[in-house]
Amino acid sequence: MSADELRKEIEAGVRFFGWARGEHLLGVAGIQSLRDTTLIRHAYVLPGYQRKGIGTRLLEYLIGLAGTHEVLVGTWADATWAIRFYGKRGFKLVPSREKDRLLRAYWSIPDRQIETSVVLRTTLS
User: Fold this and answer.
1) First-residue to last-residue Cα distance in the chain
2) CATH, range 3-123
3) Is residue 93 packed enough to be buried (19+ CB in 10 Å), middle (13-18) or exposed (0-12)?
4) How much is the pTM?
5) Helix residue spans in 12-125 (DSSP H)
6) Long-range contacts for 3-10 (Cβ within 8 Å, ≥24 apart)?
C-alpha cells in the first residue's frame, strides 16, 4: 500500500495497529467502524513470521476493540489461506447474494472485485 493509499484509509476511519519485534514491524491490521458493523481491514503478516501467532493476536486485539455486535472481513475468494485463518477463529462465510450486498454497503470497491471476493462474519456476544 502506498503512503497516499494509507493516508486515505486513515482519513476514512481505518485505525491501524502493528506487531513489532524490536525495530521491525512484523504484522499490521486495521479496524473500521461503519454504522452498525466493524470491519477488519488490511491484515498482513510478513511471510517469514506467519504461523507464529502474530495474526491471531492482532485479530483478537481488534475484536476486543469492536464496538458492534458484528465483525466482517472481506478477502479474495482465491485467498484460501486467509479464509482458513478466519474460519479457524470463528468467522463464517456469508452466502454469495448477501456477500454482494455487504461489499456494496461497507466497501468502496469495483464490481469486478466484488465478483472475486468473499465476506466472512463473526458475531460477538
Assistant:
1) 33
2) 3.40.630.30
3) middle
4) 0.90
5) 54-65, 80-88, 96-106, 111-115
6) 9/41, 9/42
Please list the pLDDT of the chain residue by residue as tens digits (125 residues).
788 988 998 998 999 999 999 999 999 999 999 988 999 999 999 999 999 999 999 999 999 999 778 999 999 999 999 999 999 999 999 999 999 999 999 988 889 999 999 999 999 87
Burial class of residue 34 in the structure, from the number of CB atoms within 10 Å of its CB (0-12 exposed, 13-18 middle, 19+ buried): middle
> How far is the C-alpha of 50 from the C-alpha of 19, rounded, in Å?
12
Q: Count Cα neighbours of 47 within 13 Å in the Cβ-side half-sphere.
A: 0
Strand 92-93 and strand 37-45: the pairing is: unpaired
Domain boundaries defined on the chain:
3-123
Round to whole Å and give the CA distance between 59 and 36.
19
